[in-house]
Design brief:
Layout (H helix, E strand, L loop, with lengths): L3 H6 L1 H10 L6 H32 L6 H33 L19 E6 L12 H7 L3 E2 H7 L6 E2 L2 H17 L2 H10 L10 E3 L4 E3 H6 L10 E2 L7 E3 L4 H4 L7 E3 L5 E10 L18 E11 L4 H19 L3 E5 L11 E9 L4 E12 L1 H6 L2 E3 L5 E3 L1 E9 H11 L24
Parallel strand pairs: 4-9, 8-14
Antiparallel strand pairs: 1-11, 2-3, 5-7, 6-7, 9-10, 10-16, 11-12, 12-13, 13-16, 14-15
Helix pairs in contact: 3-4
Length: 434
């Protein structure tokens, strides 16, 4: 959520930026509900104080009829007002939760992803003296991808990955962990990008792949629910995560972190699950859009002052690893309609796929400010003793399937084999081709 005081002070701005993001939060009704809530709270507080004073005056002596009558009157009046306050607070919270995070000043205003702005192009697209195949043709030729048997066993949009493709995935995982836990690499990226950050390495983490509904909602990643998998009949009301960030970002809920511990940078690996509702017929071939996929996700907890530089660092990490793999890509600054409800800013990286002759998304970087931590109550105790909300960032390190797709299509040979990027060869037993 965003700060209600900010909304009070900037109602017109919040309403305009909410519409620019494509949301229909009722700011006028929210402020009316807020005013009613505060009025009722003042009345409740006044009655509670009078009740306490009355109780104190009767202590150690027999109450008079007048005192007893006033006590009953206060009890009934307080019960009525507390019921009204509960109802108004429920309405207020629902209206406040509907307000998206405010987009940063440099976010392009747009109505759909078509209005995202290309900010950078890197790498030369490979030139082939043969007709390049797409990844599912290569997967079928080499017996690396079996969707037919997966459909028989589990259903559509699942796959068995086999053989050298599996080894390639684990080589990528090891490469990411080796890179992000190397403090010298992090320092170089900070220096090269002129960032004012501490060169702390990332901490590897294997997060849970299930999350309680309360935490999912506080992360503001539960919606749209039709895209999530719910575990029916579970007493804890659990959902399968759609990305590691969902259980990484919520891990410090209701906690106060000492300032000296920040930034906390995590690199998490998990299997993720999405129903891909509304995508019938899209990417039905291959492993681009699956119900189950593996992903490496970065999550950072920081102070407010450093959070934007942390966002830029995560993008620098993404670009560095793509360049190390030698995959051509472009960078898109996402527009207001595409950055997502909790995001103040979002950047996508799309890899060039020769077999499809177009760029496809492989990475995203989300800058959330304190939008998530306000609901999660994740705070930081500053060195002077004051307590503030922490800030969060998350970003893709590698979505395993999509990254392997990019490698397969960019490094394919005329014989239908795939060359291994140089940085992965030591993690593939020195092999240069699969």
């Amino acid at each position: 959520m965003i700060d209600i005081q900010f909304i009070r002070d900037n109602a017109d701005l919040v309403e305009r930026k909410t519409k620019e993001k494509g949301y229909n939060a009722d700011i006028k009704q929210l402020l009316e509900s807020d005013s009613k809530r505060r009025e009722l709270q003042q009345q409740v507080d006044a009655l509670r104080q009078e009740r306490n004073e009355l109780a104190a005056s009767m202590k150690g002596q027999k109450p008079s009829e007048e005192q007893m009558a006033r006590g009953r009157e206060l009890k009934d009046r307080l019960a009525d007002l507390e019921q009204q306050l509960t109802s108004v607070e429920s309405k207020f919270n629902a209206l406040l939760k509907a307000v998206p995070n405010m987009p940063a000043d440099d976010v392009p205003v747009g109505a759909s992803e078509d209005d995202n702005v290309e900010s950078k192009v890197w790498g030369d697209k490979p030139q082939f003296d043969f007709e390049p195949k797409n990844h599912w043709e290569l997967g079928e030729q080499n017996d690396w991808i079996d969707k037919e048997r997966a459909a028989k066993v589990t259903g559509s949009r699942f796959a068995y990955l086999k053989g050298d493709l599996v080894r390639l995935q684990f080589a990528l995982i090891q490469y990411v962990f080796d890179t992000l836990t190397n403090q010298e690499v992090i320092q170089k990226l900070i220096d090269d990008n002129g960032l004012k950050l501490e060169a702390k390495a990332f901490i590897p983490i294997l997060p849970p792949v299930m999350i309680r509904e309360e935490m999912y909602d506080q992360m503001d990643r539960l919606e749209p629910r039709e895209d999530r998998y719910h575990l029916d009949g579970d007493d804890d009301n659990l959902w399968l995560i759609g990305s590691a960030e969902h259980t990484l970002g919520s891990m410090y809920a209701n906690e106060i972190l000492p300032e000296a511990s920040l930034p906390l940078r995590y690199i998490g690996y998990s299997t993720s699950f999405r129903q891909e509702a509304g995508t019938y017929g899209k990417d039905s071939e291959g492993i681009i859009r699956m119900h189950q996929f593996d992903k490496l996700e970065m999550e950072v907890f920081s102070t407010a002052e450093t959070s934007f530089d942390e966002h830029l660092l995560l993008i620098a990490v993404q670009e560095y690893m793509m360049q190390q793999l030698g995959i051509p890509y472009h960078v898109l600054q996402k527009c207001t309609a595409d950055i997502g409800k909790p995001d103040a800013r979002g950047v996508d990286i799309e890899a060039w796929l020769p077999g499809q002759a177009k760029y496809r998304e492989t990475h995203t970087a989300d800058y959330m400010t304190d939008y998530q931590t306000r609901r999660l109550k994740t705070r930081v105790r500053r060195t002077d003793g004051s307590i503030e909300l922490a800030h969060t960032n998350d970003a893709t390190a590698f979505a395993m399937g999509r990254t392997m797709v990019a490698i397969m299509e960019n490094y394919q040979t005329a014989e239908g084999r795939v060359k291994i990027p140089a940085v992965l060869q030591p993690r593939m037993g020195g092999r240069t081709e699969i």
